[in-house]
Amino acid sequence: MTRRLCLLILAAAAAAAPCAAPAQSTGAGTATDATAAPQAEGRLGEEVDALVGELIAPSADARADARERLLELAGPTAKRAERVLELLPKAGETMPPALANQLNDLRVEIEKRVAESAISESHVALDVADAPLAKVLAAIELQTDNRLLDNREQFGQQAEARVVTATFTGLPFWEAVDLVLDQAEMDVYAYSGDDSLALVNRDEGRGPRLGTASYAGPFRVEATSITATRSLRQPDQKSMNVELEVAWEPRLRPIALSQKLSEVIATNENGERLPLQQPGQSIDLELSFGNQATELRLPFQLPPRDTTTIATLRGTMEVLAPGREAEFRFEDLKAGRQAITKRNGGVTVTLAGVQKNGAVWEVHMRLRLDQPGEALRSHRGWVFDNKTFLLDENGEEIDHAGFETTLQTEEEIGLAYLFDHEPGVEGLTWVYRTPSSVHRFPVDYELKDLELP
Questions:
Q1: Could you give phi then psi for residue 235, rounded to 5 degrees?
Q2: Can you give the residue range of the structural domain that contains 273?
Q3: How far is CA 211 from the centre of its chain?
Q4: What is the per-residue pLDDT across 38-49, written as a single tens digit (0 to 9) for each?
Q5: Cβ–Cβ < 8 Å for 187, 181
Q6: β-pairing, 213-216 with 186-189?
Q7: What is the DSSP letter of 269?
Q8: Where does the source fall among the domains of life (predicted)?
Q9: Each residue's pLDDT tens digit, 141-170
């Protein structure tokens, strides 16, 4: 049993532990340790330790109070939550099962709050007059961590100088971007394959962006087209499709989007409901890394000819989004070594083995989430986008040459990463980065006054 775990159990006054605490703590986070964090963080560590001990107190009220106070310590910001997560003790064979379960539930809740914070909308403040477009884009990027790139030259377009005049405070990211792009007569190309928003010249005849979309937190939902279809050979086959473009702030990395048609309500100019086709269905879209938008088609029954407008279109989508990023390092790789398993938050990564296959080295791994939900059942694409590489003795990154899927279940996925590295991989370090959890969030949107064809 570790010394720290003994102290935590003693703090709960649940039982005497078979170890004695020294007179002066030398653990990480104390002010007296020469390598410790600053004094404030030392106090945070002491408070976390005391509250963790209370998680296995005899009183249910004391346990609930300790959990709530730990959540308060984690706070609403990712930086603070990360620090508290680092201070929570890691589960081990000597940890009482009750404490291990409490800590696991606590980690999941903190990581969900981190994800909720990350998926909240960014805000922008500008006060510029005839400012160069590049300067304005840089200011927005600095305030929101969203990369904005002027890609006109890459698209073979004329990149004339554009200026912007704007004064506002606390405007949501998408509303601010729409205002700036309308002035600059530019538009967004959301499928650049990069983690940035590509900006291009506006097509001739393109209307304004501002006021045409629903701003739903970090998401922007715009109706791009409405088509009505009637089969002349089979008159009963008739429908109306509303195409939506769902865009998100480029700093985000959503995994999947689901739209239950039962969560969509549309009315015409007289307030009458417009029925959907197959309202019990759900539209599920897997989102690709490097794109900042996707298209969603809503299928309606064809309305009567005297219906001219969709007066209101309201819906609630569900977005699958990652929590904080966890990094795993496996040092001194060797062929034939037994599997090594490491855990960080709600994710477990196993280095299953290293082997040579012809001229290529294979690094076999498995990934498991504590609460996979649909993250591994039906939306696995995000796993393939996880960053992984080898580090040589000089700290230089060696990228993989591809991968093969070796295992797929509802709880776990296995991959073999291929490295074409002539000196070999033995003795190197394998680094793997992945979201430590995946969470589902609702996104509400409302569009108005959509004219029918």
A1: -55, -25
A2: 216-322+438-453
A3: 27
A4: 566 678 888 999
A5: yes
A6: unpaired
A7: T
A8: Bacteria
A9: 999 999 999 999 999 999 999 999 999 999
Q: Would you give the DSSP letter of residue 276?
A: B
Same domain, 71 and 37: yes
State the DSSP code for 339.
P
Q: Are residues 424 and 334 in the same domain?
A: yes
Degrees to nearest 5, angle at CA 254 with 250 and 260? 125
311 and 448 share one domain: yes
Question: Cα-flanking dihedrals φ and ψ of residue 432, to 5°?
Answer: -135, 130
Burial of 111 (0-12, 13-18, 19+ CB in 10 A): buried
Gap between the Cα atoms of 37 and 46, Å rounded = 12
| pLDDT, position 21 | 39
Could you give the CA distance from residue 231 to residue 92 in angstroms, rounded to a whole number? 65
Could you tell me if 67 and 88 are in contact, meaning their C-beta atoms sit under 8 angstroms apart? no
CA 32 – CA 227 distance, rounded (Å) = 71
- The H or E element that residue 132 is part of is strand 123-132
The most distant pair of C-alpha atoms in the chain lies apart, rounded to whole Å, by 90
Q: How does pLDDT run across 59-102, given as a tens digit for each residue?
A: 999 999 999 999 999 886 777 887 888 888 876 667 888 888 88
Per-residue tokens: 385: 């986008």
**Structural domains of the chain, count:** 4
- The H or E element containing residue 282 is strand 282-286
Which residue is associated with the tokens 């689901």? Answer: 258
**Whether residues 308 and 447 fall in one domain:** yes
The amino acid sitting at 436 is: S
Distance, in Å, from the CA atom of 26 to the CA atom of 263, rounded to the nearest integer, reads 56
In which element (H, E) is residue 181 found? helix 173-184
